């Protein structure tokens, strides 16, 4: 073998060793990744992923809360008497189905009575009377206070209701 052939054989051998070492390193790296994935698969409980179960239970709880929510409308959005007047129906004149107090008068002994409308019927109420599911708490010469559904309704019909402008 001459010097030229020896050099080519050494060069081929050198490149072969470098390629072999790089392939070995590449295979080692892939093997560690596969081992990690395999260990994760072995340690994972099939069908009992805790994070997924927690997420599902939170979603079910949220759904139950939304299904059990009850809405109370103050006014019926489908009531056409608020928009148009119908002949022969007295409640369409005012367009209001709830409680409406329009006047108060003195009884002479320092107490007041009020005229309130509920479902197109007129009622004379005093303090303590019940109307439309609410209780009259206070009557003054210009206001009526009715406590209904944990709220206090205030009907202002005196001249001072125009003072806000």
What's the quick description here?
The protein is of the alpha+beta class and 165 residues long.
Written description of the protein model:
The chain has 165 residues and is an alpha+beta fold. The protein has 2 domains: 3-67; 96-158, SH3 type barrels (Roll). Helices cover 38% and strands 24% of the residues. It is built from 3 helices and 7 strands; from the N terminus they run αααβββββββ. It has helices spanning 3-43, 50-67, 91-94; strands at 99-106, 112-118, 121-125, 130-131, 134-139, 143-148, 151-156. The strands form 2 sheets. The chain has a 4-stranded antiparallel beta sheet with strand order 4-5-6-7, with no helix packed on it. It has a 3-stranded antiparallel beta sheet with strand order 1-2-3, with no helix packed on it. Mean pLDDT is 84; it is low at 91-95.
Rounded radius of gyration (Å): 43 Å
Counting helices, strands and paired strands, the structural category is alpha+beta
Largest beta-sheet characterization: 4 strands, antiparallel
Q: What's the average pLDDT?
A: 84
**Individual helix count:** 3
Shape: rod-shaped
**What's the SSE pattern?**
HHHEEEEEEE
List strands and helices in order, with pairings.
Blueprint: H1 3-43, H2 50-67, H3 91-94, E1 99-106, E2 112-118, E3 121-125, E4 130-131, E5 134-139, E6 143-148, E7 151-156
Antiparallel strand pairs: 1-2, 2-3, 4-5, 5-6, 6-7
């Amino acid at each position: 073998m001459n010097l030229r052939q020896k050099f080519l054989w050494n060069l081929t051998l050198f490149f072969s060793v470098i390629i072999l070492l790089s392939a070995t390193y590449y295979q080692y790296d892939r093997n560690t990744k596969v081992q990690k994935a395999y260990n994760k698969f072995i340690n994972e409980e099939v069908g009992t992923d805790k994070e997924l179960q927690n997420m599902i239970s939170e979603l079910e709880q949220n759904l139950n809360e939304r299904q059990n929510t009850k809405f109370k409308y103050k006014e019926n959005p489908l009531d056409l008497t608020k928009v148009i007047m119908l002949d022969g129906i007295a409640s369409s004149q005012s367009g209001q189905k709830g409680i409406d107090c329009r006047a108060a008068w003195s009884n002479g002994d320092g107490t007041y009575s009020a005229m309130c409308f509920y479902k197109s019927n007129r009622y004379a109420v005093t303090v303590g009377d019940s109307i439309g599911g609410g209780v009259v708490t206070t009557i003054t010469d210009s206001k009526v206070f009715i406590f209904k559904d944990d709220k206090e309704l205030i009907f202002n019909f005196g001249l001072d209701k125009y003072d806000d402008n």
